[in-house]
């Protein structure tokens, strides 16, 4: 088995449901250090993608591209743009193919991570979603079954949340309130953790 | 919140409805209901298009400056929030007259990410584009970190001068060069007396006592340099001029334009009291003032306060500054 457009559709349907379920949790986390709209960004973005699912082409790259465009349609939120940036990197990496083997997931995540770092002008260690993505990427190295990958990613993101909890945010709007962020989970990392939850169901 | 509106969620769309209804000779929505405004005659075939955008709440910035000799298109976000990638891409598509697009906007994290991403999308559609960022707010970072500074009222000069350059039929490389040159020549600083209220938030962006002011505050209420008792117009103008001249020293014979801008609620009377001091100071250093601008050019809705922008000119920039241009808020 490998990642195909058909699997991508199932994945987004699950993620959208999960984002609806955790919308208030993410809004509240974000409200402590930002403008409190992360839950709305994620749920609206995912729902917009779901609207487009029937139109997704078999070309995996084009499918990723459509999801990137759909995700940014509803809001100008920086987090939404970061997600779309990651999806666009995956689009470029898989363009012209109808499937990508599961063993390619670490490479796709690395590509997404690099593009998101460049776009967000953030580094690993800044206490952002990038740290969670990097941990997940490292944890799934050498695994080629989706269930095993998701379990490893979930554990790695949990460990990352714990490791960063007592550190300050170093980038983005949360940086202005850096000291206030000590002791708080980064909302973006939690959002990614909930995406993994959604995919696991 | 004391505002004349119908529904905070419709603030931006109803504002755009009214703007286009009042001035159809300048503004047109790129598509029905879209938060994308283009010139009435867009796209102008063969001309480099200049596209800007950002959050609402700063009129005439950004949308107001769409017009001949100025901007070709604008993407408009919620109040103080970046427009979406899709809106920016739509503005670029609708403005593009086949000679490429300059993205000219202020340096804010969200706007940069979204404009960059829109540029990347357009690249895949073979529409070339470039970026010039305004980083004119001297209070927002030290000179050695100039590239981190926020963009504020310097945008007015950038729109005017880059717009005039594009009108000459110059290509994208040349328009971009001139836009960067004017961005590099602008320095601004602001001072706020009162906050403003974002309709969807319903409460003021910050708290400040009745007898206090904040020097160096950003146009969204970003923290400034100091907060203290309100000072006189001359004291405030002197400190703002000190900051601008320290950052970009002027010599005898230099030619500059200066913008004394209301952040929204500050009336023209107070602006002219401030201008009087600023002009005397420029005369003291021997600089010649060209086409001074005094009024409401870049605002934060009902915020009381002022910003000064000095744009240092050379022959090329001065000629372009004086070239004809028109929009509903400004005519040259």
Structural features, described:
The complex is a heterodimer of chains A (201) and B (332). Chain A has 201 residues and is mostly helical. Chain A has a single domain, classed as DhaL domain (Serine Threonine Protein Phosphatase 5, Tetratricopeptide repeat, Alpha Horseshoe). Helix content of chain A is 65%, strand content 3%. Chain A has nine helices and two strands; from the N terminus they run βαααααβαααα. Chain A has a two-stranded antiparallel sheet. In chain A, α1 packs across α9 and α8 runs antiparallel to α9. The longest helix of chain A has 19 residues. In chain A, 51% of the residues are buried. The model of chain A has no long low-confidence stretch (mean pLDDT 90). Chain B is of the alpha/beta class. Chain B folds into two domains: 185 residues, 3-Layer(aba) Sandwich (Rossmann fold), CATH 3.40.50; 134 residues, Hypothetical Protein Tm841, Chain: A,domain 3, CATH 3.30.1180.20. In chain B, strands 7, 8, 9, 10, 11, 12 and 13 form a seven-stranded mixed beta sheet that branches. Chain B has a six-stranded mixed beta sheet with strand order 1-2-4-3-5-6, with helices on both faces. The mean pLDDT of chain B is 95.
Quick overview of this protein structure:
By secondary structure, chain A is mainly alpha-helical.
Mean pLDDT of chain A: 90
So what's the overall shape of chain A? Answer: globular
Helical content of chain A stands at 55-70%
H/I helix tally of chain B: 8
- Taking pLDDT < 50 over at least 5 consecutive residues as the criterion, the unreliable ranges of chain A are none
Annotated CATH topology of chain A: Serine Threonine Protein Phosphatase 5, Tetratricopeptide repeat
